[in-house]
Design goal:
The protein has about 350 residues and is an alpha/beta fold. The strands form two sheets. Strands 2-1-3-4-6-5-11-7 form an eight-stranded mixed sheet, sandwiched between helices. Strands 8-9-10 form a three-stranded antiparallel sheet. A hairpin with a 5-residue loop joins strand 8 and strand 9. Helix 1 packs across helix 6, helix 2 crosses helix 10 and helix 3 crosses helix 4. The protein starts with about 25 loop residues before the first helix and ends in a 7-residue tail after the last helix.
Length: about 350
């Protein structure tokens, strides 16, 4: 609901007439549909919304939005989104990047957007492959991954997006799957409501070049034991019957079965996404689904000063102090000019 003009939006308000040009079965279709629904619930008008992307399969998304949008250049979406939000802080700005676009050539812009805490919402589509350029390994591909650019297996360790976010002092991190639409919509809405840089990592399937990369996590039978949905203020429970939980084990986390080895429901930790100290949140974000379940949902959501607000405050303060009313005033009154004869 847009309370300013009493308009109730639906997903259709944010969807245009363009047919999405992704491969049939690509996870991008589900993410796009979920974003339309999330935007409708957030209630910011389409004409007050902008979607910025770089290059890659995911970066086609602005073409399918009934909002303002820019399909920019490789790896530069965060930089352009930062500029837009700084110039127009009244707009809601979303950035769409893939693991290649956002973390390879765009890695530097990604980390500094987080460091500055610009009020933009970053959707990071992570399929662990370069899809648009036909199947090369990406910065998130696992060591040993065989691809067109690593026919004998990669000899590199991958980035873990969550680790980058926490290393940059990020204030908001959430994770979802392209097949878990309700959870992904929930975290998109939370990201939009967060003041500052929010990062939503969506683990997404590429049906052509990396089919089934997350099936061991997303298949219904496997999901219950390998994935935990974290909700602020609720116990960290998982398993088919919610009979498993996470407990503190010294400085680490441990997965236990309630009722076994003396563990009770009281031992299970309660998720606190708003805690300023990120020690436990970091541990939760780095669980990988093997020894400990992979965490989805909002993992960290804390408030902090935003870049564009501080810039606007500083500009107004200097204008008042110096008496600047225009760019010409600033040049003349600064006295830092010279003539070339």
């Amino acid at each position: 609901m847009d309370t300013a003009n009493n308009t109730k939006y639906t997903a259709a308000h944010f969807k245009n007439e363009q047919a999405a040009r992704w491969c049939p079965g690509c996870g991008d279709h589900a993410i796009l549909s979920t974003l339309h629904k999330a935007m409708a619930e957030v209630g910011v008008a389409p004409h007050n919304t902008a979607v910025i992307s770089g290059i890659g399969c995911s970066s086609r998304l602005p073409y399918y939005m009934n909002t303002y949008g820019m399909h920019t250049i490789h790896g530069r979406a965060a930089a352009i989104a930062t500029g837009l939000k700084t110039a127009r802080p009244d707009l809601m700005v979303w950035e769409v990047s893939g693991d290649g676009d956002g973390l390879a050539i765009g890695g530097n812009h990604f980390i500094h957007a987080l460091r500055r805490n610009v009020d933009i919402n970053i959707l990071l589509f992570n399929n662990k492959i370069y899809g648009l350029t036909k199947g090369q390994y990406s910065p998130t591909s696992d060591r040993g991954f065989v691809s067109k650019s690593s026919p004998y297996g990669t000899t590199e360790d991958p980035f873990i997006p969550a680790e980058l976010v926490f290393g940059c002092r990020g204030k908001f991190f959430a994770r979802g799957f392209d097949v878990s639409l309700d959870t992904t919509k929930e975290i998109m809405i939370a990201a939009a409501k967060h003041k500052g840089t929010s990062v939503v990592e969506v683990l997404q399937n590429c049906v052509i070049f990396n089919q089934g990369i997350y099936s061991w996590l997303t298949d219904k039978e496997a999901r219950v034991d390998h994935v935990i949905h974290l909700v602020h203020g609720e116990k960290m429970l998982f398993g088919k019957d919610k009979n498993k939980g996470l407990v503190q084990d010294g400085f680490s986390l441990k997965a236990v079965t309630i009722g076994e080895d003396g563990y009770t429901i009281d031992d299970v930790l309660v998720h606190d996404a708003h805690k300023e100290d990120d020690t436990l949140q970091r541990e939760l974000a780095l669980m990988d689904g093997h020894n400990l379940p992979l965490a989805i949902g909002v993992i960290r959501d804390v408030s902090g000063l935003t870049y564009e607000e501080d810039v606007e405050h500083q500009v107004n303060e200097v204008k008042t102090k110096k008496g600047f009313t225009s760019l010409r005033d600033m040049i003349i009154k600064s006295r830092e000019t010279w003539e070339v004869k």
